[in-house]
Amino acid sequence: MVAAIVAVVVAVVCLRLPAVARGQLQVGFYNTSCPNAESLVQQAVASAFANDSGIAAGLIRLHFHDCFVRGCDASVLLVSANGTAERDAAPNKPSLRGFEVIDAAKAAVEKSCARTVSCADIVAFAARDSINLTGQAAYQVPSGRRDGNFSLDQDALNNLPPPTFTAQQLVDRFANKTLTAEEMVILSGAHTVGRSFCSSFLARIWNNTTATVDTGLSPAYAALLQALCPSSPNAATTTAVDPTTPAVLDNNYYKLLSLNLGLFFSDNQLRTNATLNTSVNSFAANETLWKQKFVAAMVKMGNIEVLTGTQGEIRLNCSVVNNRSSVAAPEAQMARHYYSGSTASIEEIATS
Ligand code: HEM
Ligand SMILES: *[C@@H]1O[C@H](CO)[C@@H](O)[C@H](O)[C@H]1NC(C)=O
Ligand SMILES: *[C@@H]1O[C@H](CO)[C@@H](O)[C@H](O)[C@H]1NC(C)=O
Ligand SMILES: *[C@@H]1O[C@H](CO)[C@@H](O)[C@H](O)[C@H]1NC(C)=O
Ligand SMILES: *[C@@H]1O[C@H](CO)[C@@H](O)[C@H](O)[C@H]1NC(C)=O
Ligand SMILES: *[C@@H]1O[C@H](CO)[C@@H](O)[C@H](O)[C@H]1NC(C)=O
Ligand SMILES: *[C@@H]1O[C@H](CO)[C@@H](O)[C@H](O)[C@H]1NC(C)=O
Ligand SMILES: *[C@@H]1O[C@H](CO)[C@@H](O)[C@H](O)[C@H]1NC(C)=O
Ligand SMILES: *[C@@H]1O[C@H](CO)[C@@H](O)[C@H](O)[C@H]1NC(C)=O
Ligand SMILES: *[C@@H]1O[C@H](CO)[C@@H](O)[C@H](O)[C@H]1NC(C)=O
Ligand SMILES: *[C@@H]1O[C@H](CO)[C@@H](O)[C@H](O)[C@H]1NC(C)=O
Ligand SMILES: *[C@@H]1O[C@H](CO)[C@@H](O)[C@H](O)[C@H]1NC(C)=O
Ligand SMILES: *[C@@H]1O[C@H](CO)[C@@H](O)[C@H](O)[C@H]1NC(C)=O
């Protein structure tokens, strides 16, 4: 009886260990299979940044929007023939940017080592490189993610937090992705870089109701925003989320919150909530502390629901799932992957 139980326990442990090891990302996953992978991505990001420093913010957000929807599996990059992929959803279109940087990095990596480096890892590396370019020491990013085969606009709506969320709603959304309330506050500090279209704060400046405006938007700042964004604004107008230093990764975001200069209702929630504002105050007071925690939280975010081992695939073109005939033999033995929105997949599904 005891022996039987021991045998079962041993069997379970033996079965579980490799599964756990397989499921983990590793720093330097491409050390031998593609030693240049990370530096090629870094070069593509640096070159895009030299042309347009705003691209760094775009790439940081791209990783966030990838990870929160079906995990960090590059599903955010997939295009759909009928416009129903994640990237077509309102939180992503037209604001999400950096797709062409990922494509350039992927092209360079494919040239150096074909069919080896996932699009999901490229997105994760590019976010790290963007953080480095805007003012943080480079840090190691575990890799070995594999690419997903499905992307649906509704998933983006269901999982990405909108800027109208309350503290409780924000905490809940992040908790669903294994991130704590403190990590939500830490990651929101990414709003120290980048831009926003008017639509993300329009209701806040024009429909001043208790639902959309809290005590927390400086009247002078509101007047500036109203001048920039009339109630029917030019769809192309944007403004910096952190107007003091829009291309620098610093703790100004937290300092602005205390001055009633948080751009989104959601930003201001971090300050008006008594539980969350202790973190806000400590990051406003200590930039080193925030940066340390930011890097750790980014790495943790990069682990959300990842595909590893034989799951998923290494996409050849980051915008579309592989079709069977384009896939190398070892890949072809794995589960077939289709993406419902792509023309190639529709053909494949029809013939399978
Ligand atoms: C806490 C919940 C969050 C909400 C409600 C939120 C909302 C938003 C909104 C509405 C925008 C502007 C989109 C537009 O152009 O209209 C934005 C921009 C941005 N967000 Fe967030 N966000 C959140 C968390 C995060 C996180 C966790 C990150 C990354 C770690 C992040 C990084 C960024 C960046 C870098 C931009 C600027 C993008 C650019 O310039 O292209 N955000 N966010
Ligand atoms: C890759 O090399 C780096 C630096 O030597 C090392 O820290 C890392 O553990 C290696 N990773 C793997 C998976 O071999
Ligand atoms: C440079 O940045 C602009 C946007 O600021 C973009 O339209 C253009 O395509 C970029 N050029 C290159 C070569 O990346
Ligand atoms: C970016 O990373 C490089 C390489 O580690 C480092 O030399 C540089 O100082 C970093 N940039 C910043 C702003 O810390
Ligand atoms: C929580 O995350 C899971 C996995 O991504 C998703 O299926 C579910 O819809 C999410 N729930 C909420 C309430 O966001
Ligand atoms: C203001 O609120 C009304 C009613 O909810 C809505 O129809 C309108 O689009 C809002 N205006 C802005 C600028 O958000
Ligand atoms: C919202 O309304 C209140 C009360 O009328 C006012 O004090 C505040 O300045 C308004 N805020 C904005 C952003 O218009
Ligand atoms: C503050 O946020 C917490 C979640 O961290 C929530 O439980 C609480 O209800 C919020 N407090 C207020 C006054 O909204
Ligand atoms: C923190 O939140 C509490 C509750 O809303 C508020 O009384 C306090 O003034 C806030 N602290 C700061 C520094 O804003
Ligand atoms: C700021 O945070 C860093 C990192 O945690 C810590 O070493 C340092 O002592 C803190 N500085 C102050 C003034 O509290
Ligand atoms: C990748 O796929 C997209 C969408 O079908 C296509 O527009 C693009 O040209 C492809 N890129 C390459 C390098 O083949
Ligand atoms: C997509 O991938 C998932 C998980 O890897 C798999 O279960 C599913 O069958 C695939 N879908 C298609 C249509 O191949
Ligand atoms: C988009 O295409 C997919 C796959 O063909 C299909 O399942 C979906 O219903 C289509 N959506 C719309 C809105 O036509």
How would you characterize this protein structure?
- The protein has a domain at 36-194 and 241-302: Peroxidase, domain 2.
- It contains 16 helices and two strands.
- It has helices at residues 2-22, 37-51, 54-67, 99-112, 119-133, 153-159, 167-175, 181-188, 202-206, 219-228, 252-258, 265-272, 277-285, 287-301, 329-332, 343-351, and strands spanning 195-197, 238-240.
- Helix 2 runs antiparallel to helix 4, helix 2 crosses helix 5 (119-133) and helix 13 packs across helix 14 (287-301).
- It is globular and about 60 Å long.
- Residues 1-21 and 328-352 have low confidence and may be disordered.
- The site of one 2-acetamido-2-deoxy-beta-D-glucopyranose has 4 residues, from helix 14.
Order of helices and strands: HHHHHHHHEHHEHHHHHH
Calculate the mean pLDDT score and round it.
88
- Our measurement of the CA-to-CA distance between the termini, rounded to an integer number of angstroms, reads 49 Å
CATH C-level name of one domain: Mainly Alpha
Spatial shape: globular
Helix/sheet category: mainly alpha
Tell me the CATH architecture of one domain: Orthogonal Bundle
Helix content: 40-55%
| Unreliable parts | 1-21, 328-352
Strand content: under 5%
CATH structural fold name of one domain: Peroxidase, domain 2
What is the count of DSSP helices, taking H or I runs of 4+ residues?
Answer: 16
Main β-sheet, spatial strand arrangement? 1-2
